[in-house]
Amino acid sequence: MDLGISGRKAIVNGGSAGLGRSAVLALAREGVEVFVSARTEHRLLRTCEEIAQETGGRITPICADHSSAMGRAKILAACPDPDILVGTCAPPPLTPDYRAITDEQWRECIDISLLSPVEFMRSVLDGMVERKWGRVVNIATVAAKYPGEIRALSGSTRAALVNYTVAVSKVVAKHNVMINNLLPGMHHTATVHKQFSELAEARGSSYGEEVAAFAKEWHIPSERFGEADDVGAFVALFCSEYANYVTGQSLVIDGGATRSTF
C-alpha cells in the first residue's frame, strides 16, 4: 500500500531504539528521508546504517539531546523544514512509590517529554502551514489517558503534551497539517527488555516468564506485549495522505489492557 509520502522529509527524535526506531523504519520503507536524533552516538549510527541498508532510504543521524535548546538547534539546522515531525524519548523509570520521585526526575521528565516536543512544534508548524501540508505524531504513553502510580512520571507530563497537541491541532487542521498522538502500552523494546531481564535475574526466572506474569497481573487481554514495529506502522499511517481528515486523536495501542468505550 502506497501511503503517498515518498520524498517527504521527517524528523524523528529519540529514534535510535525502541518505538522511535520503529517509526524511522516504517517511514524509510515509505520512501521518506528521515533525520534521526538521539543522545547515544554509537547506537544512533548503528541504527541509521541498519535501516538505510534494509530500506535503501536516506537516513541522517544527528547526535543531540532534543530536550536542550542547543540540541534542538542542531536538529533543526540539519532539517529546518520537515514535512513530518515524530517525537518520542526513552521512558522514565517506573515509579512504584510516588513519594520517591525526586525534583531532578520531575525536571528531566518535563524537559524531555513535554517542553521539547512543544518547542519543536512551535518551530516547524508555521512552515507546514505555509506549505499546506504537515504531519506531527507524538509517541506518548497509555498512562497519559489512564493514570497509574507506576507511570506517574511518564503519564503526567505526556498527558499535558496530549492536551497541548490536541488544542493546537484544531488551529492548523484547515491548512492540511494533522497532529495526532499514539498512546502505547507495553511493547518489546530495549528498555522493557532490560527492565524485565533484570527482574528475571533477581527472581531466578526468565524474561518470558516475567512478561507473562506482568500481562496476567495487569489483565492484558492479549496476554502478551506488543511488538515495537506495530507502533511504527501506525506512525507511518498517521503521517500518510490517508490521514488528511484525522487530527487531534490519541490512539491507544495496549493489547486491550485499558477499558473504555472511547
Automatic annotation (TrEMBL):
Pfam families: adh_short (PF00106)
Record InterPro entries: NAD(P)-bd_dom_sf (IPR036291), SDR (IPR050259), SDR_fam (IPR002347)
Family the entry assigns: Belongs to the short-chain dehydrogenases/reductases (SDR) family.
Protein's UniProt name: Short-chain dehydrogenase
Transmembrane parts of this sequence: none
